[in-house]
């Protein structure tokens, strides 16, 4: 993607929070899911990372819509979706949200892609809805459960955002999530997304991530194609975790993107998109 076009795209999204978004209302009318769909072809669901929303995937929409029916969504409480009151939302419950949206769109089977926490949800979806999973993209994520230390850290962070707001979390995430070469435009757009998230949604997700179990067996036994992507400068989930997942999954391919950190789709959109196209478009 040319730099000028990327800047244009980021600026466009910066001033339009609901670009292309639609809303799915659930039967009780008090819950709703904000989602976007573009393109035609094989259904491809993109599940965003913590603590962002579906705007994380804006660099993917233009490049992938020529090959796939691309669907993005705001997870419960994030972006424009309802929910997330501070109590834990498990990865399985987020996977249920994805399933509800697919049912609403009359999609029987899809490639499920997730980044970071989105990858945890993708694995939970595969485990729970195997017959609805056509393939898996695991970006900057891992199959291991949290250590006891990490669980305690997540709970402390959840309490902090509920009591004191999200500024400290944003500062820490901005310091670790991008590569040393990330542009100022990317930093500004990411910061904009982060500042719009609700403390209760972040607390729900933090507590939900702490509940997850190791899913190595899911990877080891799946027969669907798996694409594993990471960034060489990922400081949040080591690229070694991607290497370990690749070793577990007989049907996997591994891509390590240069000059990318924890949000590799964001920093290297062309290469990220092409990796997905190469594995799943044909």
UniProtKB/TrEMBL annotation:
Pfam families noted in UniProt: Abhydrolase_1
Keywords, ordered alphabetically: Hydrolase, Signal
Entry keyword annotation includes Hydrolase: yes
Organism in which the protein naturally occurs: Legionella sainthelensi
Protein name: Alpha/beta hydrolase
Domain AB hydrolase-1, residue spans: 42-269
SUPFAM superfamilies noted in UniProt: alpha/beta-Hydrolases (SSF53474)
Signal sequence, renumbered to the chain: 1-21
Keyword Hydrolase carried by entry: yes
InterPro entries, A to Z: AB_hydrolase_1, AB_hydrolase_fold, AB_hydrolase_sf, Epox_hydrolase-like
Gene Ontology molecular function, alphabetical: hydrolase activity
Superkingdom to which the source organism belongs: Bacteria
